[in-house]
Amino acid sequence: MKYVSTRGIEREGVSAAYAIKSGLAGDGGLYMPEEIPTLDFDEIEALAELDYPERAAAVLYKFLDGFEYGELYEDAAAAYGGGKFKPSPAPITELGDGKYMLELWHGPTCAFKDMALQIMPRLFVRAQRKCGEERTALILVATSGDTGKAALEGYRDVDGTRVQVFYPTGGVSDIQRLQMQTQEGGNLSVLGIRGNFDDAQSGVKRIFADEKMKAELDAAGIFLSSANSINWGRLAPQIAYYVSAYCDLLKAGAIKIGEIIDVTVPTGNFGNIFAAFIAKKMGLPIGKLVCASNRNDVLTDFFRTGEYNKNRELYLTSSPSMDILISSNLERLLYLTLGTEATAKYMSELNSRGSYRLSEEELCTVCESFVGYSANEDMTEATIRELWENKNCLIDTHTAVALNSANRYMNDNKAERTMLVVSTASPYKFARDVYRAISGVDIREGEKALAALYNRTSVEIPAPLSRLFGLPINHGRVIDKSDMEKAVREFI
Ligand SMILES: *Cc1c(COP(=O)(O)O)cnc(C)c1O
Fold first, then answer.
1. 424 CA → ligand 1 middle, Å
2. Which domains does the chain have, with CATH numbers?
3. Would you say the CB of residue 330 lies under 6 angstroms from ligand 1?
């Protein structure tokens, strides 16, 4: 099975390994498998008897032609086994009223990015070898929080790779900054940038576009790559946990084989929810996908009106991983539902005008599977508080956006199907906001907020976060945004 560009301008298909090694297609589009493999009910029932690494390897094997099952299982076992995810990679918990939560934050950085970034570096190194690439990959990451730490943890000490992360000094939470500054590993560099996330991101883009830099790196045996969710190697592992959740619902007796469930996903770059859509296309019985946004409701408007318009203010919210105006993976949905021609046209309009509008007919096709909801800050806080007070269940701000959206969707549609709500971060990762939601008290400092949240709820703090405040700072350096090129040269 070949991979092709969503824009169809680059006509030749490429191998799965090449798609993973290169990230972006030559025409600026994103790589997609030429066809979506299928999954039937017998297979689902068989997968239900297996553990998570086996389920993940089986799903990946359907997509990654040129990779052997044994290789994929070895990678999945190394990524998800060995006690790295406690108690397990993707457990479900019952919320009552037909709702279940899929918890994806039990990995080393306490956010769902681990589900992809623990295995992607392993797939990436194999892809490099399969393509005959002998140079070292330098992965450059601009991060507003969760991705940077997850990439550092995933790529640490992985042969043939080095990672350099740039974060805005003012733009990440106390806990997120400490997570990155205390990172261990011999192939890593972490730098604070005096500026905001846009400064860090444009700096990285500038380096990617710099031909002189490229030649210098090449002479040093290095090529540049990225770790964000436009890379198929990051998306494919996310399909597996939807299949796994369905298996677990089956095993728990919550559903019967073939029974359709709905899924709600807190959405930023549209990677996580798109993986659910692929699972549905494969044959996993999923009905509606509720796309949950915070106050940055570009996607909610898109699914309601057909117009995607990024010309609007970006709000900073308590769910920062969803503070986004361009959801890159939406391009993959356009490709699957409308084809390459429409995708190329709309992406070019987005580039030039910052907006595009689907026809009525196109919108109907897209909305067969998707519906958009957005939750503002008050709704998010109230959802955290009510769930804590009524069910003794503590969730983070991103998950609260999703749960609030799921509740309203179910109410508006008198929906009776089982609803799977995706939980993307440990509540302790956003301790300040979660504590304020349940107590009304704002504690700015990360360590104190964490302790206060624990003292009030007695919910266990994940080990990677409770250990954090005693660790030595390995990466305390802060630089001017104009010195990013210099920092790359120093690092190689
Ligand atoms: C990245 C992230 C999201 C958004 O996921 P996308 O795949 O970008 O849509 C939601 N919640 C948390 C906690 C995240 O880190």
1. 7
2. 92-111+233-466 (3.40.50.1100)
3. no
Question: Residue 313 burial by CB count (10 A; 0-12/13-18/19+): exposed, middle or buried?
Answer: exposed
Q: Which residue, among 355, 257, 354, has the nearest Cα to 45 in the 3D structure?
A: 257
CA distance 416 to 431: 33
pLDDT digits (tens, 9 = 90+) for 187-212: 999 999 998 887 888 888 889 889 99
Kindly state if the Cβ of 15 falls inside 6 Å of ligand 1.
Answer: no
362: enclosing H helix or E strand: helix 360-367
What integer is the mean pLDDT of 61-76?
Answer: 98
Measured in angstroms, how far is the CA atom of residue 283 from the centroid of ligand 1? 24
Say how many C-beta atoms besides its own lie within 10 A of residue 481's C-beta: 17
Cβ–Cβ < 8 Å for 364, 309: no
Q: Give the pairing type, strands 3-5 and 418-423.
A: unpaired
Rounded to an integer, the average pLDDT of 273-297 is 98
In short, whether 270's Cβ falls inside 6 Å of ligand 1 is: yes
| Ligand 1 pocket: which of 321, 396, 428 to mutate (most atoms within 8 A of CB) | 321
Asked whether 290 lines ligand 1 (CB < 6 A), one says no
> What distance in angstroms lies between residue 377's CA and the mean position of ligand 1's atoms?
17
Q: Which two tokens stand for residue 160?
A: 């043939």
Give all strands (DSSP E) within 184-254, no chain letters: 188-194, 222-225
Distances (CA, A) of 489 to 149, 155, 216: 22, 20, 9
- Alpha-carbon Rg for the chain, nearest whole angstrom, is 21
333 touches ligand 1 (CB under 6 Å): no
Instruction: Look up tokens 């009552």; give the residue.
Output: 96
Q: What phi and psi values does residue 271 have, to the nearest 5 degrees?
A: -80, -50
264 CB within 6 A, ligand 1: no
Whole-number Å distance, alpha carbon 321 to ligand 1 midpoint, is 5
Measured N-to-C along each axis, helices 431-439 and 377-391 cross at an angle, to the nearest 10 degrees, of 70
Q: Which residue among 235, 327, 328, 398 has the greatest number of ligand 1 atoms within 8 angstroms of its CB, and so is best to mutate?
A: 398
The string of pLDDT tens digits covering residues 144-171 is 778 999 999 999 999 899 999 999 987 7
Cα–Cα nearest to 120, from 230, 279, 208: 230
**What is the Cα–Cα distance from 178 to 191, expressed in whole angstroms?**
12
